[in-house]
TrEMBL record:
Main location: cytoplasm
Basic residues compositional bias, start-end: 556-566, 658-667
Protein's recorded name: Signal recognition particle subunit SRP72
Keyword Manganese part of the UniProt annotation: no
């Protein structure tokens, strides 16, 4: 260490004066000038421990953590591990070298309070929450200073993390909720326990405390207060989303995003939760929100489970946007990070199913279930569903029966029996009942679930004619309840096919008909309002209504013949044409069409001449001129009727104004029917639920 007397630094300033400047600048918080003075001292005394220590502190205060760490590594011999242990560990912690910081702290021989504080922070970042709780308990118990409230806040944060990520029941530490930070952490603990209603009340209380405490500061603007409240509002939105109030949650999430808080972790979690609400809808908005989850430093702000959930949602979004390669890349990366986790594999399977590659999907699931049998439950359920989609019901049943965790659940037993019955494999269905009854006989004998299962097995066997096999089940049920007459009747019916003597002996236990009779008026019951069949009373025979003679009422009524439709211009006074049934060309009076001649020659002759008088000069058109050839049967009629047109040939005379336009054909209406295939209706079960995250 340099002597303070007579030692002059460069520039003619003594070392003592430089130390005075360092002290003054340090008290004023001007670490940049203090660093310059320390450097001048080190030019004269290169290995001065105090000067080197001060230089490291100044660099840390200025945020130059790498440079401070370089100074420590350069002067390792001078700066011992105990002297500079806290500063070294802090630099490593701020540079996100958390494992190195832990080693530095554990290697220190003297554990000061500030080193223990840093030790707790390091353990929290490493997600070793149980050890972290012990460290903070020791600090709160053995220290008394102005930082006690901060330590309690950190302890409550650790308890909230334990409840949220490890699902461990929280320990009642008696922490007061006097600040909004403590109240917020208490709400997070309740969310981890699933008590969302009480958690919302805590968050509202935290919001009120935050507004009160920040409004006392005159320098805080409304925008600053809202930025501080952003984390509370985001957690409120998560509770709303969990309760199904997605519209309210989305509105609150967007308000947080618009504030643009400085916390990249908060932005990432909020954006991820918006993506989970959008799902496969509003994909354009989800793509914009994904960019917020990729911000720099997010990986150091969030827990491992939060980061995994965000990556899972990215993979799902890539699948929904038909980015197959990106989906495979993200899911493969997730599987490499956590090989035993089933969800990355399920995402890959879902992508293969979208590409109609069910066989490859089943192979992938089979490999994973063999490698990680402890995580095979979800995988095997998905395999069973894929087999059902392909129509392999028996294979699906075999897969389901291999899942030990849910093999004897009542829902699983019901599904297996239904599928085996569909395949007409009654023996396998009865075997499912038998194994389940044996399991309940060992685990829960005589319970309601056990007896209900025996009852269903007996009814199933009786329904499909397996009365002999149902005897043991019916006997077991009857022994449990001797007063069950219905079961006794079923048992007697079953024994009647096997052992009639046994059936007769059991029939003695049946009650007598007198005890079974109920004083019921059958007629009144049949005529009651709720009866489905009401017997009609016989009508009284009076003198006026005599019975009909035999055969008289059996005569069938003759159907009246409907009159045929007549032509519109039909005249009953005119005899019909006898040749009306022949085609026009075969009739005797047909002369063919006159080609090239029009009724009126319009536009012919001299200019200004009219052709209206030509019709009057045509003798063939006059009424008095006889036809060129007589029609058949015209000799029997009068002269006035010889020019009459038969009804089939008559046309109603109508003017141009009253002439009806030909009716247009109506266009046919086509209905486009969209139907879902079996795969489209079932593949929704393959979708991986988007996981929402809290802050």
């Amino acid at each position: 260490m340099c002597s303070l007397q007579g030692k002059m630094a460069s520039g003619g300033v003594s070392v003592a004066t430089l130390w005075t400047e360092v002290n003054r600048y340090g008290q004023n918080g001007d670490y940049t000038r203090a660093l310059k003075s320390v450097n001048k001292i080190l030019q004269e005394c290169k290995d001065d421990i105090t000067a080197l220590h001060c230089k490291v502190v100044c660099l840390i205060q200025n945020g130059s953590f790498k440079e401070a760490l370089n100074v420590i590594h350069t002067h390792t011999k001078v700066l011992g591990s105990d002297v500079i242990a806290f500063e070294k560990a802090y630099c490593e912690y701020r540079l996100n070298r958390v494992e190195n910081a832990l080693k530095t702290i554990e290697s220190a021989t003297q554990q000061s309070d500030k080193l223990k504080e840093l030790y707790g922070q390091v353990l929290y970042r490493l997600e070793r929450y149980s050890e972290c709780v012990a460290v903070y308990k020791d600090l709160i118990r053995n220290s008394q200073d102005e930082y006690e409230e901060e330590r309690k806040t950190n302890l409550s944060a650790v308890v909230a993390a334990l409840s949220s990520w490890e699902k461990s029941p929280p320990e009642d530490l008696g922490l007061p909720e006097t600040t909004y930070e403590l109240c917020y952490n208490s709400a997070c603990t309740l969310i981890g326990q699933g008590d969302l209603t009480e958690a919302m009340n805590k968050l509202r209380a935290a919001e009120e405390l935050c507004r009160q405490s920040l409004s006392e500061d005159s320098d805080m603007t409304e925008e600053d207060i809202n930025s501080e409240l952003a984390v509370i509002h985001s957690q409120m939105a998560y509770i709303m989303q969990s309760q199904g109030r997605t519209e309210d949650a989305l509105q609150l999430y967007n308000q947080v995003i618009k504030l643009k808080p400085a916390d990249v972790g908060l932005l990432a979690v909020t954006a991820n939760n918006i993506i989970t609400i959008n799902k496969d809808q509003n994909v354009f908005d989800s793509k914009k929100k994904v960019k917020l989850t990729n911000a720099e430093g997010v990986e150091h702000k969030l827990a491992t489970k939060q980061l995994q959930a965000i990556e899972l949602n990215k993979a799902l979004l890539a699948m929904y946007t038909n980015q197959a390669d990106q989906c495979r890349k993200l899911s493969s990366s997730l599987q490499a990070q956590n090989p035993g986790h089933p969800r990355p594999v399920l995402i890959q399977v879902a992508q293969l199913c979208r590409e109609k590659q069910h066989s490859k999907a089943i192979e992938l699931l089979q490999r994973f279930s063999e490698q990680y049998p402890e995580s095979a439950s979800e995988i095997k359920l998905t395999m069973a569903q894929l087999y059902l989609i392909q129509g392999h019901v028996t294979k699906a049943c075999d897969i389901l029966r291999s899942i030990e965790e849910i093999k004897y659940k009542q829902g699983m037993i019901s599904a297996l029996v239904t599928m085996y019955t569909h395949e007409e494999d009654l023996d396998s269905a009865i075997d499912v009942f038998g194994q389940a009854i044996q399991y309940y006989q060992k685990q829960q004998p005589g319970s309601s679930g056990h007896l209900a299962l025996v009852r269903e097995a007996a009814n199933f066997k009786l329904k499909y004619g397996r009365k002999k096999e149902a005897i043991s089940d019916l006997e077991q049920l009857w022994k449990q309840n001797k007063n069950d007459i219905h079961t006794l009747a079923q048992l007697i019916s079953a024994y009647s096919l096997v052992d009639q003597e046994k059936a007769k002996s059991l029939s003695k236990h049946l009650p007598s008909p007198d005890t079974m009779s109920f004083n019921v008026d059958v007629d009144e019951l049949e005529n009651s309002h709720g009866a489905t069949y009401i017997r009609k009373k016989a009508a009284k025979v009076t003198g006026d209504t005599l019975p009909k003679e035999q055969g008289q009422g059996d005569m069938k009524k003759k159907k009246k013949k409907k009159k045929g439709k007549m032509p519109k211009n039909y005249d009953p006074k005119v005899a019909p044409d006898p040749e009306r049934w022949l085609p026009m060309r075969e009739r005797s009076y047909y002369r063919g069409r006159k080609k090239g001649k029009k009724k009126e020659q319009v536009g012919k002759g001299t200019q200004g001449a009219t052709s209206g008088g030509l019709a009057e000069l045509d003798a063939s058109k006059s009424a008095s001129s006889p036809p060129t050839s007589p029609r058949p049967g015209s000799g029997a009629t009068s002269a006035s009727s010889t020019n009459m047109v038969p009804p089939r040939q008559q046309k109603p005379a109508a003017s141009g104004a009253t002439r009806k336009k030909p009716q247009q054909k109506k266009k046919k209406a086509w209905f486009i029917l969209t139907t879902k295939s079996l795969f489209d209706s079932l593949k929704t079960l393959l979708r991986i639920l988007l996981y929402t995250l809290d802050v």
